[in-house]
Amino acid sequence: MIQDFEIATVPVGRVGGKSRLFLIAGPCVIESEAHVRLMADAIQRITSDLNVPYIFKASYDKANRTSVHSFRGPGLIEGTRILRRLAEATGLPVLTDVHEPAHCEIAAEAVDVLQIPAFLCRQTDLLVAAGRTGRAVNVKKGQFVAPWDMEHTVQKVTSTGNPRVFLTERGTSFGYNNLVVDMRSLAIMRTLAPVVFDGTHSVQTPSSANGVSGGQPEFIPLLARAAVAAGIDGLFLEVHDNPAAAKSDGANALNLRDLRPLLETLLEIHDAAGV
């Protein structure tokens, strides 16, 4: 049985329990300090109204962009400064990606959750370094990894004595430039750790748009409804107030105006499903 733990003020309950569905949401990358504050405030108002535990997310560096010319973010030092100030101003728990073991301690001083990108989910040194910080660690399941093989990923983090690890499903490679979601993976990984469903990267069409990734955001609600009904602990959504102008992953982002009605529907499903 998975042990209870908290991500800052957000409780993650036992597998199969009836804890409140929590949300991880925000823009893909830090575009500016003003923009992340705007997004955090807007999403926090919605989640507060709906009584949804909320973790803000944004990356200080997108090190796995398709093209060398793509925007990556403000970098480790400036990015973590922005995230620390946002956490202090809003009181929100904050999540960000880490790509290198040397970044973990620095990022951990500013945020509550370190996220391991899907492409790096087998990198032992990175997983161990993240675990050693004592922060909660969210690992995105690689598009190339079977759900049952994430057991080894969990063990790499927990070998440090840190039990606060959870897993995120974000689709599996299905030929070139396409992903599919096997809903069975949610139940399989949920025997290993609490599970989050990434409703926005799961509709991504990787590297399909002339040097950037495309997406099919019209399917975000469909997949999110199915995942909540199947049984998950949390939901991950990249949300932007103007996806067409987003500097990263706008093609698969959820428009901010669509967040409240989607969450209202998902909470009804979560309560009815009881899983």
UniProtKB/TrEMBL annotation:
Q: What is its EC number?
A: 2.5.1.55
Q: Name one GO molecular function term.
A: 3-deoxy-8-phosphooctulonate synthase activity
Q: Which domain of life is it from?
A: Bacteria
* Pathway listed: Carbohydrate biosynthesis; 3-deoxy-D-manno-octulosonate biosynthesis; 3-deoxy-D-manno-octulosonate from D-ribulose 5-phosphate: step 2/3; Bacterial outer membrane biogenesis; lipopolysaccharide biosynthesis
**What InterPro entries does the database record attribute to this sequence?**
Aldolase_TIM, DAHP1/KDSA, KDO8P_synthase
Q: Give all residue intervals belonging to the DAHP synthetase I/KDSA domain.
A: 15-269
Gene3D superfamilies referenced in this protein's UniProt entry, alphabetically:
Aldolase class I (3.20.20.70)
Which GO terms are recorded in the biological process aspect for this UniProt protein?
Answer: keto-3-deoxy-D-manno-octulosonic acid biosynthetic process
Q: Which Pfam families match?
A: DAHP_synth_1
Q: Which reaction does it catalyse?
A: D-arabinose 5-phosphate + phosphoenolpyruvate + H2O = 3-deoxy-alpha-D-manno-2-octulosonate-8-phosphate + phosphate
Q: Where in the cell is it found?
A: Cytoplasm
Q: What is its main location?
A: cytoplasm
- List keywords of the entry alphabetically: Cytoplasm, Lipopolysaccharide biosynthesis, Transferase
Q: Family per UniProt?
A: Belongs to the KdsA family.
Q: What is this protein called?
A: 2-dehydro-3-deoxyphosphooctonate aldolase
Q: Name one GO cellular component term.
A: cytoplasm
Q: Which residues form a coiled coil?
A: none
